[in-house]
Specification:
The chain is an alpha+beta fold. The protein has helices at 2-51, 95-113, 124-133, 154-168; strands at residues 74-79, 88-92, 136-143, 148-152. A four-stranded antiparallel beta sheet has the order 2-1-3-4.
Length: 177
């Protein structure tokens, strides 16, 4: 019986190294793949850190600002017709640039409607009519204190355009308001 007991033990001893060798080979194949993935992740994280430099608040201090001003950002969401395919957005640095962009869109439409006209003129009412004909007009403006976008509706856009135009038109002495 001692020979019978030794035989299985010998077999077990012989099988164990084979299993270990297989696991070592498997680990050798798997580990480099894991290392490559780790390196890829490290590179991606480094790339993100280099590209993005988010404003961080430390110890209750306000977030840093760019060139002495808080970051401004405005998005105009527009849908000129009832068709969803006409949805679009325009990206601007501030509200003034947004108003200029909306006016430029309106003037471009007027030029397309009157290609032979050398100059295009319009009044505030026709601008309001243009905005009213759009299915959707919405402005999202970044609010620094709340760190969120504030939504402004069509009426606000009309009032802002009115204020912009009133300040852009020189008075009788040639001064802008």
């Amino acid at each position: 019986m001692s020979a019978a007991e030794e035989a299985p033990a010998a077999i077990a001893v012989e099988e164990a190294p084979a299993a270990e060798e297989a696991s070592v080979k498997e680990d050798e194949v798997v580990e480099p793949a894991k290392e490559e993935k780790k390196e890829e992740v490290k590179h991606e994280v480094k790339a993100i850190k280099k590209e993005e430099k988010p404003a961080q608040v430390k110890e209750g201090k306000p977030a840093p600002v760019l060139q002495g001003k808080p970051r401004e950002h405005v998005i105009a969401l527009l849908q000129p017709t009832k068709h969803d395919a006409t949805r679009t957005y325009l990206d601007f640095g501030n509200v003034t640039a947004t108003m200029e962009g909306l006016l430029k869109m309106f003037e471009t439409k007027l030029k397309e409607q009157n290609p032979s006209a050398a100059n295009v003129s319009y009044d505030y009412n026709s601008l309001c009519q243009y905005l009213d004909e759009m299915k959707e007009v919405c402005i999202l403006s970044w609010d620094v204190p709340t760190t969120a976008y504030k939504r402004f509706d069509r009426a606000w856009v009309k009032q802002s355009l009115h204020d912009y135009l009133a300040n852009a038109v020189p008075d009788s002495a040639g001064r802008r308001k």
